[in-house]
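WARN  no MSA supplied for this record, continuing single-sequence
INFO  ligand: S-adenosylmethionine
INFO  echoing inputs
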Amino acid sequence: MKATYDTIGLRYNATRKADPYLFEQLHALLNPKKDGVYVDIGCGTGNYTHEFHKKGYSFIGIDPSKEMLLQAKARNSTIVWTMGAAKNTGLAENSVDGRSLS
Ligand SMILES: C[S@@+](CC[C@H](N)C(=O)[O-])C[C@H]1O[C@@H](n2cnc3c(N)ncnc32)[C@H](O)[C@@H]1O
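INFO  complex generated
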């Protein structure tokens, strides 16, 4: 089944990017550790996942849209991007240290 963002997200990054203020809020609330593994649920094209990655944090990006994940992977293929949703991430229980819903 096609996810909504497979259609409406085709040119998502033409108009969207990580907002520095929002990133700082996410960072402060999550308080990630450099040796932890975190998950960005609803990562889309990975705007915030990528910001965390640039700062040296280990993140997995999860999204139900194949199109959004393709764009995320094209930007950074070293990050793990997986298809999933908030209700079913597909990750094993207790396999990450925290999550961000960007
Ligand atoms: C507005 S975009 C935000 C993308 C990214 N977090 C950002 O800030 O650039 C919303 C994203 O949430 C995803 N999404 C929709 N329903 C979801 C669900 N049930 N669980 C996880 N992600 C979902 C969409 O596929 C889309 O990529």
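Helices lie at 4-8, 20-30, 47-54, 66-75.
INFO  checksum written, moving to next record
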